[in-house]
Amino acid sequence: MTQNIQQxxxxxxxxxxxxxxxxxxxxxxxxxxxxxxxxAFLYAYYQAVLDYPDSIFLVxxxxxxxxxxxxxxxxxxxGFYRLLSTRKKRMMLSAAIHLIIRPQLWLRVLENMKLVSQxxxxxxxxxxxxxxxxxxxxxxxxxxxxxxxxxxxxLEESQGTPATYVHLTTDAHNNVAVNEFYxxxxxxLASRSERVGGRLMNHYKYRLK
Length: 209
Prior knowledge:
about 45% helix; globular
């Protein structure tokens, strides 16, 4: 019997899911910065998400219990970035060999470290926002609806927080399908920014209340 995708079970991620999540991230985002920093870096990052008490970290599996996708984010994002900042040395060590092999990544890494530092500098927790930081779906499962299930489940979980908005960031160029995906889920384009190398980013928000 074929599984009804709309009824696929979405569960909270647990520690034993991390190796699968890392592998799925590598499959879903080849050539992206976090992938290029290696599996140990990815594991350390998603371990931090899992450890953060206000995280929203979900996985979806098919009828054969194979993970088809995950979504990771957090309420009170500044608090998460403070946690991430305390693990900076550990995470850099986990990526060291990949930075030696690919020294051209340093500019992007330093840019991201600066953003983390800025976000972690506040002593207050801005509880009006939830950040959807990462979502990955197995490339070989095509457009079967797992991504939509994950985002809707993430939004449902976010409704249980004090937040007013869910925010996310994605590439503006050469990324039509992803941008349309979020627009079709009622996210609104809030702003646009430019990263190192002229990379343009779209910043979306979804009103919860």
